[in-house]
Amino acid sequence: MADLTGTAGLPGEYAQLYAALQERMKRGGDLSPGPTDTASRFRQGGRWDPARGAMHDEIIDAFKAKYADHPRGGRAVLMTAGAPGAGKGSTQDNLALWQSEASELGRQLSSIHGLDIKDYVVLNPDDFKEDLFKAGGLPPLSPEDLRLPFGRELTPAEMSGLLHTEASVLRDRCEAWARKEGYNLLYDATLANEPNAAALLQSLSDDKYAQRVILSVEVPHDLSVAQNAGRWHQGRVEFEQGTNAYGGRMSPEGMIDSLYGKATTGRGHSISRENSQQLTERGLATGLITADRGVFTPTTAQAQGATFQRGETTLGIAAAGRLRSAQGTATRTTPVAQTPAPRLPGQTPPAPGRTR
User: What is the pLDDT of residue 347?
Assistant: First the structure.
């Protein structure tokens, strides 16, 4: 079994459970997407099993109802970037607090972003995995497949890799609906694949989404791995105590290693940061907000035009085509689209009776 960094901070049996799960979740493992996942079991020739299709319709209807009263017409996008365990969720929560400050940080964040985080339709495959669990859609595993060391069994969250493909299909259907209806969109992602992100941002620009901001969150590699393991451990303990029916999410360490291993700047960031900067320099993203925790190596690589410190977090803010080098020289590029950002605070929900 591989030597796993995340086991270092886990107590006793949990370190061994974590290692066993990591082995099963890695590419080709029995808990990874593939020939035994729910898409392979319940979809034939592009058509879902009727009962599974009905489950999908119920989940999507509930998703639409959840966001029915959210603002439309603002045409804003927020796309996250960063490795699992980097703290993207907590940074989203803090964004609203920082943005509301009567300070230069608050002014700049409002200028480049300006939207309440609660006014987005959230498109996150992990949420749809949990929806499938709540709807009774867990993969049908044998007692042997459910078994873990120390007399334990898999939690629903630990089976979630087998729901990934199916959850992505649900996410895509909900995205198509939300874009058609003109909702503001929050894409929860690592931004590991720059060509795919570029194609999506260009498509959103073509679809009149005038404000397209990337929120790039970075911690050093070892902290990302430790927080990934810690998140799982907390959820596993809560599951065993009966206070969390789903358990704790965990990403394969190989995925985290790959994100950092592909980086080229030497700063200690993941490839997600490099992709975020490139997309902003090209104007595919209209703005970039960075949040760093931990120690990174200073270089002359591209950095943000303005930086602020809030606790342990260093924040950077830049508009498209206005990233600065670490030596302070402005780098200007020609954006793909220079559409002015919408006036987001003035949005209103759709009038009663409008088709949703």
Answer: 38
